[in-house]
Amino acid sequence: MSKSTRWDSKENESKQLPIYRHKAKLVQAVKDSTFLVVTGETGSGKTTQLPQYLHEAGICKNGKIGITQPRRVAAITVAQRVAQEMQCTLGREVGYQVRFDDCTSQDTVVKYMTDGCLLREVLADPVLSQYSVVILDEVHERSLSTDILLGLLKKVLMDPANATKGRSFPLKVVVMSATLEADKLSAFLSNCPVFAIPGRTFPVTCTFGTAVGPKDTESTGYVKEVVKMALDVHTSEMAGDILVFLTGQSEIERACDLLYEKAETIDYRYDVQDQTVEGLLILPLYGSMPTDQQRQIFQPPPSGIRKCVVATNIAATSLTISGIKYIIDSGFVKQLNHNSRVGMDILEVVPISKSEAQQRAGRAGRTSAGKCFRIYTKEFWEKSMPEYTVPEIQRTSLTAVVLTLKCLGVHDVIRFPYLDCPEERFILGALKQLYQFDAIDRRGKVTRLGELMVEFPLHPGLTRALLKAASLGCEDLLLPVAAMLSVENIFIRPGHPEKQKEADKKHRALAAKSGGTNDFATLLSVFQLCKSSDRPSAWCKDHWIHWRALKSAFSVEIQLKDILHRLQQKRDFPVEKFDGNKSELFRRCLCTGYFTNVARRSVGKVFCTMDGNGSMVHIHPSSSLFDEEVELNWIIFHDVLVTSRVYIRTVCPIRYDWVKDLLPKLHEVDAYELSSVARQEVTDEEMIKWETREAAKRQPEVSTEDIMKKLEKRNDETAVSDARARYLQRKQQRQQNKAL
DNA sequence: GAGCACTGC
Predict the structure, then answer these.
(1) More confidently predicted of A698 and A420
(2) Distance CA A279, CA A234 (A)
(3) What is the pLDDT of residue A726?
(4) For chain A, how far is it from start to end, CA to CA, in angstroms?
(5) What is its EC number (predicted)?
């Protein structure tokens, strides 16, 4: 086939897309208004075609067309396809930019990118002077970055003073979403026009089951039910692959084991409805699985064999498997929720939303009509499942977001135009933490340190520790640690008990090599050992270390180092001196970033946090401090894991002296007082009043009683009663100790 | 004495 005919067929293909008939009207609609909402289900062609139409219409003579995607792979693959359709080399007229991979050039006019990348660009150029059109795609997914971009663009463009500032021509914004959220988006963007494009998907019939009722919101019995249903489908439905949705790795492995076991007993002569079906291929799928094993999922099964993929939510949006005709939906998902009261992120299993259930069902109708079997009852659907998934911005810690906004000149972070407002206490919590890290001052203004911090793609605490290390000239200790802590868990723990023992032994040995009492030091040593190894991937395999994760830690470390060196070129980068040994230096730097996560020994392996909540936490058995006998009274920790207990992982022993001056800062500013700072409504009088109160409150050592008083003032009943219960418990314990 | 979904900069 010659090149031109191949392209002709591509062109015909794109002419058959539902969007093609609306080409002229769509281009006109973009020209006519500042904001435009475009809706269309998957398969309408909006992502690949609209940028081409706008390019053809000459809209990019002033500047680029930028299209955001919530995921890297989407940005890359769509750019590849569009470059092919436009017959140009990828990276020239059509390009993409994602973290660690910039495939654009001077000529690039159609630029696909991740939403996070565009947000970074806004930080450097708030009016996006390089762009003539910005298209936000997949807005219904409500990713954190997309939500922030939406608010920023609204704020910039709705204010006529901003619209022309720094720009010589107007910016157009197109917001693309699935049908459901269209009206809400239009209303948000001052009732801008909505352009609806019909989709091109096949019908999926859904049925409800009997296994999970509204009272079973926390049961895990659904694994068995899901397996039963999968076998039922396999034996009674016509040929076509099955996709099962569960919540996590261990659950998936359990389900697969059960399926193998039961599938063996099937007699294909009598048990199976469709006689062309002669076997079942069972495949697990989850994010931390090795990539080559993931690839297997996409290969079509041998003739006569039905494929059954048992997956996490990764199969809902990130990966598309062709040939799926049947969906089995457990109705649950694992979700990370921020709890502002205890200041912790907790990963929990929760019922999915109705819109998410529809999204899952839709995975069966990509190539032909399909069926979706929900194992939960209609009553569960009505009573336990919310209409929509709570957007990320209402579920996560906002510390980094608030700093970003403040650096963009948005001082009033409470009345910022959010599509859905986060709870005020989430914002106040973020402000409090930024203040504790010296990123903002008492009036809520970004400090010099805050300006440096915003440059790093890290959690603010980690950034704080890194900057401290840099000012002391020991950044080489912290850069790898920061990189290791910002990628997925690098320690592999297999399911089988024998291998588990072996992996644990290797991990313990690695910890021992770095002293055996500091998990952060272990991370540093793993990073260094692997990096200096001749065959790093083999080294990882031998030590039960996740090679893919470590590889990305290597890239992150390089990126962080680049950012740091760039900032150090500037004149006023802080420089300090320190006399002491390396281990102390290392741990002191960590303290600067983790003094919000200090805990003191209570009894045995139980520690008590010092953040005002006084929560009881346990050292996780994976920590090298778990079976350490040495006297540890004070520790800092990286994160919390709530399972059968409240566990802290990645732990490091410290001395009270190192944090004693920092600790009062934890109680110095109550979130309530910061609320006025957040709004920038403080008058001088208020400020003086506040300062006086603060001065009165400042005491050499913070006692539990003080924390109690503060909590009571907050009028947060649960917090108070929880804290009181804990306080009484501790008091009792002290008395018992005294008696002994 | 162990249970981490998924993205993204």
Answers:
(1) A420
(2) 9
(3) 42
(4) 90
(5) 3.6.4.13
If you write DSSP's letter for every residue of A296-354 in order, what string do you get? HTTSPPPTTEEEEEEE-GGGTTT---TTEEEEEE-SEEEEEEEETTTTEEEEEEEEPPH
- The 10 Å Cβ neighbour count of residue A684 is 7
In this structure, what token pair is assigned to residue A252?
């998936």
CA distance A330 to A173: 38
Per-residue pLDDT at A412: 87
Distance in Å from B8's C1' to A136's CA comes to 15
The more confidently predicted of residues A94 and A661 is A94
CA gap A716, A693 in Å, rounded: 21
CATH code given to domain A204-390: 3.40.50.300
More confident residue, A410 or A716: A410
Closest nucleotide (C1' vs CA) to A641 is B4
pLDDT at A669: 64
The 8-class DSSP code of residue A158 comes to H
Residue A326 to residue A235: CA distance in whole angstroms? 13
d(CA A376, CA A212): 4
Residue A339: predicted pLDDT: 81
Output A113 or A611, whichever has higher pLDDT: A113
Q: Fold identical between A3-197 and A204-390?
A: yes
A144 nearest nt, CA–C1': B8
Indicate the length of chain A as a whole number. 740
Nearest protein residue, CA measured to C1' of B5: A334
Give the position of tokens 């139980």.
Answer: A606
3-state secondary structure A522-587: HHHHHHHHHHCCCCHHHHHHHCCECHHHHHHHHHHHHHHHHHHHHHHHCCCCCCCCCCCCHHHHHH
Q: Which CATH superfamily is domain A3-197 in?
A: P-loop containing nucleotide triphosphate hydrolases (3.40.50.300)
Query: What's the rounded mean pLDDT across residues A534-550?
Result: 93
What's the CA A342/C1' B9 distance, rounded, in angstroms?
A: 26
Break chain A into its structural domains and give their ranges.
Answer: 3-197, 204-390, 455-656
For residue A559, which nucleotide's C1' is closest to its Cα? B9
Question: Which nucleotide is closest to A620, CA to C1'?
Answer: B2
Pick from A14, A68, A64, A67: nearest CA to A44: A14
A105 burial level (CB within 10 Å; 0-12, 13-18, 19+): exposed
Q: What is the pLDDT of residues A299-335, one digit of tens each?
A: 899 999 999 999 999 999 888 888 999 999 999 999 9
The pair of structure tokens assigned to A599 is 């805990």
Spacing of C-alpha A152 from chain mean position = 20
Q: What value does the mean pLDDT take over residues A128-146?
A: 94
Q: What is the pLDDT of residue A163?
A: 55
- CA nearest to A600, candidates A572, A635, A627: A635
What is the rounded average pLDDT for all residues in chain A?
85
Distance A203 CA to B1 C1' (A): 50
Nucleotides of B under 7 A from a protein CB: 1-9
Contact A150, A419 (CB under 8 A): yes
